[in-house]
């Protein structure tokens, strides 16, 4: 019952988050709560950097947790994409404008609701909203691309008109329009457990009601990374879209994520893709995937600044790869509540020096009939991994009994005390007596009226008879 209550509360929380005032979203203002003492851009940036570095990572406060690096980003997180384990976080639930990393969610919704061979037709609406300086590959109304070409344009060139067209066309495939796609973005976000996000468009152009958090973005990125098509696209360095029905030239564009380019100073050998973003209000936002051959991680930084986003991301990845050990669950003693793990490759990520016996666990049953569920392991309250499980029959029975017991107790708590029930019964009886008395009085009143009416009628008849006799005698 307690777990059911948590799930219900989470649903209401997710719905409430979409109605929070715009003031809760961080924009261009300085995050340390004070304006800088200079108008010089370089000095201002340096002050912001210093203020950002002074905000410690939240995970640094955990006992026995390795100390993470200071980063300039206002919000940051590193998450294991297979287990959901969070290895590093700094203000991970603060709301920020996401800019073009929005397209990661847009691609996820597109992959789930279309085929790569589907056609994407560009309407007037998909192009008309563009302003000078917006990222684009120069599409025109009436042009047609394949969905595959469109997704490359979204992720590599960050083309805003392509994002709009994909949303519009996939929305039509779902039986609606562009707004249908945006609704699906919000639904998918909530389905993934995002509680600090609200989406207004498919490209990330600024809107005060369009925001997310580092943790939410990591959940979204982890979900889309499971698609082979996405992994192939996101690590591609250069792509060419051939001639279309209206344009005869090739369109060639390159990957914007600097950690993928070997010749770039920000190159990171374990990087397997990512998405960049920038608006004046969001500053630099960055999603990055990394795989060292053993662990697959995603890092998200929000409200960062230019190249600092790459410096921060590298520092967080190095910290995560160097300070956590992968522990296979099948190598440890299985908790008595669990019959088996559904995936024999399930694991947790423990801080170096920690032991599996130091972990706490929480089991959620998803289907009592099949006895399937999820176990989440935590260390000092921090999620270090979850896995799908089959629980024992005894555990299911015990949980069901507890649920019934709790229900009975709740029912008892709303039972009306005896004295109150007696008073209510007496009051009800008085009401019934009053109604009967009123009915009897009413009946007698009606009966008297009828009697008076009969007497009047009889008197009139006698008067008429006397009058007729008198007339005859005359």
Q: Could you characterize what this model shows?
A:
The chain is α+β, with helices and mostly antiparallel strands. The chain folds into 3 domains: 299 residues, Beta-lactamase (3-Layer(aba) Sandwich); 82 residues, no CATH class; 42 residues. Helix 3 runs parallel beside helix 6 and helix 3 runs parallel beside helix 8. It is elongated.
Summarize it.
The protein is an alpha+beta fold.
State the separation between the terminal residues, measured CA to CA.
102 Å
Number of strands: 17
Largest sheet, spatial ordering of strands: 3-2-11-10-9
**Structural class, please?**
alpha+beta
Largest sheet: 5 strands, antiparallel
* Name given to the CATH architecture of the largest domain: 3-Layer(aba) Sandwich
Average pLDDT reading: 87
Principal-axes geometry comes out as: elongated
Low-confidence residue ranges = 1-23, 28-36
Enter the CATH topology name of the largest domain.
Answer: Beta-lactamase
Number of domains: 3
| Quaternary organisation | single chain
Helix content: 40-55%
CATH evolutionary superfamily of the largest domain: DD-peptidase/beta-lactamase superfamily
Beta-sheet strand percentage?
15-25%
Report Rg.
Answer: 35 Å
Compute the number of helices: 12
Q: What's the SSE pattern?
A: HEHEEEHEHEHHHHHEEEEEHEEEEEEHH
CATH level 1 class label of the largest domain: Alpha Beta
InterPro entries: Beta-lactam/transpept-like (IPR012338), Peptidase_S11 (IPR018044), Peptidase_S11_N (IPR001967)
Pfam families: Peptidase_S11
GO molecular function: serine-type D-Ala-D-Ala carboxypeptidase activity
Region (Disordered): 32-60, 451-474
């Amino acid at each position: 019952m307690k777990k059911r209550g948590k799930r219900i509360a989470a649903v209401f929380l997710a719905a409430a988050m979409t109605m929070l005032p715009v003031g809760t979203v961080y924009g261009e203002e300085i995050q340390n709560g004070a304006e800088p003492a200079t108008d010089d851009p370089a000095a201002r940036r340096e002050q912001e950097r210093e203020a950002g570095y002074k905000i410690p990572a939240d995970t640094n406060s955990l006992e026995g947790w390795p100390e993470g690096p200071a980063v300039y980003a206002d919000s940051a997180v590193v998450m294991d994409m297979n287990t959901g384990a969070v290895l590093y976080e700094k203000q991970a639930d603060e709301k920020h404008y996401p800019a073009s990393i929005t397209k990661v969610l847009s691609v996820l919704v597109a992959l789930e609701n279309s085929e790569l061979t589907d056609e994407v037709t560009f309407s007037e609406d998909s192009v008309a909203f563009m302003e000078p300086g917006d990222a684009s590959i120069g599409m025109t109304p009436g042009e047609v691309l394949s969905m595959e070409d469109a997704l490359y344009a979204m992720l590599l060139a960050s083309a805003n008109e392509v994002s709009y067209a994909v949303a519009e066309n996939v929305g039509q495939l779902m039986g609606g329009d562009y707004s249908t796609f945006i609704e699906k973005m919000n639904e998918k976000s909530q389905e993934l457990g995002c509680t600090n996000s609200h989406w207004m468009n498919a490209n990330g152009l600024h809107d005060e009601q369009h925001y997310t958090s580092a943790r939410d973005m990591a959940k979204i990125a982890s979900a889309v990374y499971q698609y082979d098509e996405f992994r192939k696209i996101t690590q591609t360095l250069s792509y060419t879209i051939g001639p279309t029905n209206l344009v005869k030239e090739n369109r060639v564009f390159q990957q914007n994520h600097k950690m993928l380019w070997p010749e770039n100073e920000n190159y990171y050998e374990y990087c397997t893709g990512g998405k960049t973003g920038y608006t004046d209000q969001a500053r630099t936002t960055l999603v990055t995937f990394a795989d060292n051959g053993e662990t697959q991680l995603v890092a998200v930084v929000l409200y960062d600044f230019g190249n600092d986003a790459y410096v921060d991301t590298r520092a967080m990845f190095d910290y995560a790869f160097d300070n956590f050990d992968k522990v296979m669950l099948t190598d440890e003693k299985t908790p008595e509540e669990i019959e088996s793990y559904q995936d024999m490759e399930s694991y947790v990520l423990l801080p170096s020096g920690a032991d599996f016996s130091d972990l706490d666990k929480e089991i959620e049953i998803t289907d009592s009939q099949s006895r399937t569920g999820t176990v989440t392991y935590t260390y000092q309250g921090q999620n270090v991994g979850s896995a799908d499980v089959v629980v024992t029959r005894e555990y299911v029975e015990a949980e069901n009994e507890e649920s019934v017991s709790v229900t009975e107790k709740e029912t008892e708590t709303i039972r009306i005390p005896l004295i109150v029930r007696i008073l209510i019964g007496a009051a009800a009886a008085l009401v019934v007596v009053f109604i009967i008395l009123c009915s009897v009085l009413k009946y007698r009143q009606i009966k008297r009226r009828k009697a008076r009416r009969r007497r009047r009628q009889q008197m009139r008849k006698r008067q008429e008879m006397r009058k007729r006799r008198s007339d005859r005698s005359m």
